Amino acid sequence: MVMTMFFIGLLYVVLVGVLLAVAHGSWPLIVLLVGGLFVAQFWFSDSIAAYGMGARQVTREQAPELHGAVDRICALADMEKPKVAIADSDVPNAFATGRSEKTSMVCVTTGLLRRLEPEELDGVLAHEMSHVAHKDVAVMTIASFLGVLAGVITRVALWGGLARGGRGGNNQAGLLIMLIPLVSAVVYAVGFLLTRLLSRYRELSADRGAALLTGRPAALASALTKITGQMGRIPTRDLREAEPYNAFYFVPAFSSGQSMARLFASHPTLEQRLEQLRKIGRELGRP
């Protein structure tokens, strides 16, 4: 994960360096644009995602069993209790949002609550709490910002360059019009692949954290198998609506089985996750 973040940071340096080299006196505008976009995404992206996924905060009186499960996980992990929410969806899933423990929220769908046994639910909640403890939402927000920035820069460069080119017909301006979108496109493509790689790492890390925290990797493996199997029974329309939020979910709405498609997947394959849990189970079983 550290190596992936290093290369993503290197891409930031390359992209900003190119912009400063070609923009000359416009660097204050570049700094303002980059800073404004970063602050907006860092502070509001998780709230927007939670709203889009239909998360509704619930009290202890409204969902006593769910609150009790979250309390047990927090006691084991010695963590502050996050906000607890439920999303009214038959797609069996869960997700966590928040930049820190104080702003975090753990949400499960009604479809998940109907299908899982208490031990399986504990494993899923521990997985999501691991994301909170590892500050994965903040890490992924920073990592994914590169793609957003590259896309915005490409549009600004094209609009501004075309406007100047239409007035002036300068060869140098025409070269810049071609250079900035090209560099931004390359940075976006490489950043996208690195971000997906980082996402797969953090999912395996959260699985490991949950298995060690609860001491029951088999329960988490059972939840993974059950949820993945149930996905095939969910109407395709519902899965398509959930698909844009795959990066947040415990299990993606659509899994990538082909080797090339795995490069673009936000989650490891079910086989990889189960194999890791089997290894942890063997380690925990040794004297």
From TrEMBL:
Cofactor: Zn(2+)
Example of a GO cellular component annotation carried by this entry: plasma membrane
Gene3D superfamilies linked: Metalloproteases ('zincins'), catalytic domain (3.30.2010.10)
Membrane topology term: Multi-pass membrane protein
EC number: 3.4.24.-
Main location per the UniProt record: membrane
Family: Belongs to the peptidase M48B family.
Protein name: Protease HtpX homolog
